[in-house]
Every structure is written in C-alpha cells, then in structure tokens.
Amino acid sequence: MLKLPRVAYDQVKWYGRGPWENYPDRKQSCPIGWYESSVENQFTHYPRPQDNGNHEDCSYIELTNKNGKNALQVVAAGDTPLSFSALPYTVADLYAARHDFELKQLGNPNLRYTCLSLDCAVLGLGNSSCGPGVLKKYSIDKTKTYTLHFKMRIL
Fold it and tell me: 80-91, pLDDT tens digit by residue?
C-alpha cells in the first residue's frame, strides 16, 4: 500500500466526464472537460448510503488542500482512461451505514480523510430496482484481464 503524507486533500480537479457522477451506462449527458469540486460535494446523499461519485473517461486527477497546495496528481498512462471517485468515506464506511447520520466523518473535521478510488473497469448501474439489470455491453467480463496504468506523484 502506498503511504501518502497526511495532508488535508479536500479539493479535487479532473479532466474527464463531469460535473456530476457518471457510470458506463449513464455518462452521455456528462461532457468530457475540466472540472473542480470539493471532495465533500462529490458525495451524494442517497436514502441509504452506497458507493457513489464515480467519474468515467478520466485522464487526469488532482487532489489538493483548500489553498491548492500539496497536490497528489494521477495521470492515466497509455490509451485507457481511468474511472475514479474521491469521497470522504471508504466503501466499507458506506455499506456499514444504514443512514447518513451513521457516517462518523459527517460534520467531524477531526475524522476527515479522502478515499481516492481508481478503476479500470466499472459495472454499469442498470435499472434493476424497477426494471432490467445491467446490459451486457456495460457489464464486466469475468474472463478478461483488466490492467490499470497510471502515474502518481506528489507535488
């Protein structure tokens, strides 16, 4: 595991799809461009906490503090763009909570951190709550090997 300095990474800037969260089967309304946001604003308050905040087709991601200093920079290497999320919670935090108020970091600056997730393949969302599941073209092929290439540096 890569050890990073304890810096208040609470701002995110990226070149990819945005400005709102998007997924392989829900990205056409999100143009590719430059976007900036606070990490906290990347979190979507769903009725039950769940993984969220994904951005598709990204070639550049940068985390900084509020002053734009101490940057952590991630650049896609090769032809395949990245998918990412930068959230104030881990996936384990989200799935352990049944309600927002159970998320310990919410409103407590002493417990704040940023969880940066980088992915080379993301499953589409589908519509299984009230319709069909994920279409095959947005599924992850279990027989395929996926490789993620990126460069990471601290500025």
Answer: 899 999 998 888
Overall number of domains in the chain: 1
Query: What's the pLDDT band for 26 if we cut at 50, 70, 90?
Result: confident
DSSP assigned state of 86: E
Question: DSSP 3-state assignment of 40?
Answer: helix
Q: What is the pLDDT of residue 138?
A: 76
* Predicted local confidence at residue 24, as pLDDT: 86
CATH of residue 125: 2.70.98.10
Domain span at 16: 11-154
Instruction: Judge whether 6 lies within some domain.
Output: no
Cα 24 off chain centre by: 13
Q: Which long-range contacts (CB under 8 A, 24 or more apart) does 108-114 make?
A: 112/8, 112/10, 112/88, 113/88, 114/9, 114/10, 114/12, 114/39, 114/63, 114/86, 114/87, 114/88
Within-domain flag for 124: yes
pTM equals: 0.86
Helix (H, G, I), strand (E, B) or coil at 100: helix
- What pLDDT, on a 0 to 100 scale, did the predictor assign at position 83? 94
Chain centroid, CA 56 distance in Å: 9
